[in-house]
Structures are given as C-alpha cells and as structure tokens.
Design brief:
Blueprint lengths: L7 H54 L2 H4 L10 E13 L2 E13 L11 H82 L6
Antiparallel strand pairs: 1-2
Length: 204
C-alpha cells in the first residue's frame, strides 16, 4: 500500500475516492449480473441448437446409402454464398448477430437426379444454418466471458481492496489529525499557564 499524507487535503482526497468507489460498485455488480444472465441464455440457446442438429443428423443417417451413390453429391453441390450478420450490444459489449445465410447449389439435371436430392439439400441447408448460428453464439459467449472476467476483477478490486483500503486511510488520517488537534490544545493550555506565571497571574 502506498504511503499516504496525513493531511486534511489527503483526507478529502480519500473521502472523494471512497464516494467514487461506492458509487460505481453497484453499477459494476449490476453489469456482472447482466453478463451472467446473458451468458446463461446463450448457453441454453447453444444447447437447443445442438439438440436440433443431433435430430437433423439422425435424419441424415437414413441418407448414408444415398451419399454413397457416385456422381450425386459433389464438393460444390451446396455452398454458402453469403452470411448475413449484424452487430448488437450487451452491457457495453459489441457482439455479432446471425441473421441468416444465402446458399447456392450447383445446377443439376432434375430428370436424371434422384427425387430425394432436393430433400437432402434442404437437410444440408438446415445443418449449415444451425452450425453458423451456433458459431456466432460461441463468439458472443467468448466476448461476454472476457468482459465478465474483467468486470468481476473490478468488482473484487473495489469491494475487497479499494474500499477497505480507503476506509482504513480515512480512519488513519482522522486519528492522526485528532491527535494533532488534541496536542495543539494541550500545548496551548501549557503555554497559556506559562505566560500567566511569567506575568504573575498565577495558575488560573
């Protein structure tokens, strides 16, 4: 702990600092709670997406034999042409928002292609959309987790270090100034008595 000056100016400085810490601490604690709530909501949504993806994957299992057919599925049969994204703000943290995606499928001969191909492509679109949204949510959680760590550190700094330390400084200065005032009064009385004796006024 840095050494403090035992003066009235320093006392005012410490009192002002204490007021500031006490004013900002509730705001930081509220922000911490908000971040925790948002992170929980995101985690719930990610779990929902993963469950939905698992169900879709189960559907895909029935297409395994289909995927094995030569010449039907190619690497560029379905590609993501554009991802629609925006920015949001949670507790002062800028986060990415997923707004959808546009896909492009390679042209194929409807007459020569199996009837189930359209259904398979739709399943693939759904899985890709789920993955893209989950990826965006993971990035949201990463950013909010980082902000939560910083906010928690600040709450702990104010609550466990700065406020107790400042209160201790105020008490220390007040005790010192009180002692100085008492000493000054005592010295004044002694000087007054000495002066009275010197002038023959007695001890009164």
């Amino acid at each position: 702990m840095a050494k403090i000056k035992l003066t009235k100016n320093e006392l005012k400085k410490q009192k002002d600092a204490l007021k500031m810490y006490q004013r900002y601490l509730p705001t930081l604690m509220l922000k911490k709670q908000q971040l925790q709530a948002e992170i929980r909501s995101i985690e719930i949504r990610i779990r929902e997406l993963m469950e939905e993806k698992e169900k879709t994957d189960e559907t895909f299992k029935s297409w395994i034999a289909v995927f094995g057919e030569k010449g039907i599925f190619t690497a560029n049969l379905l590609v993501i042409r554009n991802i629609r994204a925006a920015q949001g703000n949670i507790a002062g943290v800028v986060i990415p928002l997923f707004e959808g995606a546009e896909f492009e499928s390679a042209p194929y001969d409807l007459a020569a292609s199996p009837l189930w191909l359209d259904m398979a492509l739709e399943c693939m679109r759904k899985v890709l959309l789920l993955d893209l949204e989950a990826r965006t949510l993971e990035e949201q959680r990463r950013r909010l987790d980082r902000e939560l760590r910083i906010t928690t550190q600040r709450v702990n700094l104010f609550e466990k270090i700065k406020i107790p330390e400042t209160r201790g400084n105020i008490k220390k200065i007040q005790v010192y100034l009180g002692d100085q005032q008492t000493s000054a009064v005592v010295r004044g009385k002694i000087a007054k008595r000495g002066l009275a004796r010197a002038t023959g006024g007695g001890d009164e």
